[in-house]
Specification:
The protein is an alpha+beta fold. It contains four helices and seven strands, in the order βααβββαβαββ.
Length: 147
């Protein structure tokens, strides 16, 4: 896992469109995250020179939030998402965050299972959260905070 760069954007955007065709992030959104959002942390996972996973998480004082995460379809079920989540949790704990949250499409059952297995709990339903009108589940993982 390494920091995302502008050079990764073509591959990340292709994955984003493959994984989330109903509401993919666009290039301007990624460039904002890379260069303007002071809270953003973007990373990619590569295999044989190709990006197969990416994550964008924010540290907002005592809270952390996963803004976006994806793994190429051909690379799923190999532990890439778990590795990215584990690293995000480690860094959030190091930063003294009290919680880590994310929104997940209500019908993305594989992702929901992954997050629940990781210890995330369902906190709320966000109606019409996505551009296409789909609902999202807000999931939260309690962390250590400033122990």
């Amino acid at each position: 896992m390494r920091k995302m760069t502008d050079a990764d954007l073509p591959q990340v955007l292709a994955l984003e469109n493959e994984l989330f065709p109903a509401s993919p992030w666009n290039e301007a959104e990624y460039r904002y995250e890379l260069h303007e959002n002071p809270f953003s942390n973007l990373y990619v996972v590569e295999e044989k020179g190709a990006v197969v996973g990416y994550i964008d998480y924010w540290f907002l004082y005592e809270k952390a939030q996963i803004a976006n995460i994806g793994v190429a379809k051909h690379a799923q079920h190999r532990g890439i998402a778990q590795m990215m989540l584990k690293e995000c949790v480690r860094k959030a704990n190091e930063a003294g965050c009290e919680t880590l949250s994310l929104e997940v499409r209500y019908n993305n059952l594989p992702a929901i299972r992954l997050y629940r297995n990781f210890g995330f709990i369902d906190a709320a339903m966000r109606r019409n959260y996505y551009e296409n009108g789909d609902d999202a589940i807000l999931m939260v993982l309690p962390l250590g905070g400033m122990e």
